């Protein structure tokens, strides 16, 4: 079964799929063990991993390499965050071919200009492409995919750019017309109202994806009550969890003057061996080393 088909079958059987952000094969593996339905190959998380702002500084090659490494280590469907598609419609054709070949199940392409500015920054400078040009990019993406189940998810940043619900609905309808398989609508409001308004007003046939980072009260129950939303992405919780854990442990080691206290509160080295599949190495040694 292709990765795209796997994602579609999870959506069909679960109704709503829960997708966890990852920035590494290790975090993808942890998300899989925790029971998520798929991985969000987040541009924000990978940028942060490199200590960089999420403003199109990470190259396609860097992001694609990470997607490939994650696809090697997890069977989960990966939804690749390709930002603007790394350029115009011609760049999008190349992007779709590369990501599909390297094991992604779906792509999310957003209607911002390149270089993009991260969405949740309070005073982010947000510039959107014209609708017509973005439709061309979506048509290019459809043209480029080989597997019809490889999903092209169109993301509108109209609400992020402060253009309001009517513009967001107009764009989403235009993107459906251009052949998008789903609409991701993003919001940085602190409450779910803006997204709820959009979802209630949405008349299109294709389902909606949300990233409720800014409005965490939008839980699974509330999403189910709205209908129409089939995918929820937990956009940056892997990198935030990692930073929280490292800050706490590093501070305790400094304060305690050694590792004697934290040792019992962090996973033992054996847990890392397990995640590294050290057992397989042992089997290989026993069988093949002469
Ligand atoms: C990401 O995780 O890279 C996203 C979601 O695109 S957000 O950072 O909220 O824009
Ligand atoms: Mg992103």
Task: Summarize this structure as a short list of keywords or feature phrases.
single chain, 290 residues, alpha/beta, TIM Barrel, 2 domains, eight-stranded parallel barrel, 13% strand, globular, binds sulfopyruvate
General description of the model:
The chain has 290 residues and is α/β, with parallel strands linked by helices. Helices cover 47% and strands 13% of the residues. The protein is built from twelve helices and eight strands. The chain has helices spanning 3-14, 25-33, 43-49, 60-73, 89-101, 131-144, 165-177, 193-201, 220-226, 237-256, 269-275, 278-288, and strands at 17-22, 38-41, 78-81, 106-110, 151-156, 182-185, 208-210, 229-234. Strands 1-2-3-4-5-6-7-8 form an eight-stranded parallel barrel, surrounded by ten helices. Helix 2 (25-33) crosses helix 4 (60-73), helix 5 (89-101) runs parallel beside helix 6 and helix 6 (131-144) packs parallel to helix 7. Sulfopyruvate (SPV) binds next to helix 3.
